[in-house]
Amino acid sequence: MREHRQRTDSEINVLPVMNLMAVPIPFLLMAAQFMSLGVIDTALPAVQAGEPSADAPTLNLWIRIDADGYRVSGTDPMLHPDGGADVRLQCAVAGCPEASDYPVGELRRLLGYLKDEWPDETLVVVAPLPSVPYEVMVRTMDAARADPGVVVKGGPRPLFPEVVIASAPDAPEAP
Question: Residue 156 forms beta bridges with which residues?
Fold first, then answer.
């Protein structure tokens, strides 16, 4: 005799699969709010065709950053005391092991004096060596843009808001 088997339709339980998909979504959404990106507004140096205008003199302000501090140069006579080289702002500790060792306050004070002499100038070129930490570059850019210690029209005094990043010319890397 032949056995007769009864066929039953069974349903597939998809609830565990749905749980695997639904449970991670709130965790991903909670983690997403902790990520934030910062944007630093800056410009790259532009190539200019033709001769520069000789009508108005420019400051041509450069801040070079290396392992010993800042070297500030430009066309202002204050930046060349006694006809010498550029103004050198040394770090508080030799070799600047920490970003806080860079003389940002002195730099901001010097830029404030330059802004008093050149009120219409807005451009500064920041030229760090490749070994300079990113935090130092950002602090330098912040110091060049504004002086929070001086309040003008309800906000910090603007110094040189147009910051251009360039590679440091003729500044050899320390061995």
Answer: 151
pTM (2 decimals)?
0.67
pLDDT bracket for residue 175 (50, 70, 90):
very low
Order across the sheet with 162-165: list the strands.
87-90, 69-73, 62-66, 123-128, 162-165
Under 8 Å CB-to-CB from 110, ≥6 apart: which residues?
72, 87, 89
Phi (first) and psi of residue 159, to 5 degrees: -105, -85
Instruction: Report the C-alpha gap between 166 and 64 in whole angstroms.
Output: 9
58 sits in the region (left: phi over 0; alpha: psi -120 to 50; else beta) called: beta
SS3 106: helix
| Backbone phi and psi for residue 46, each to the nearest 5 degrees, phi listed first | -100, 145
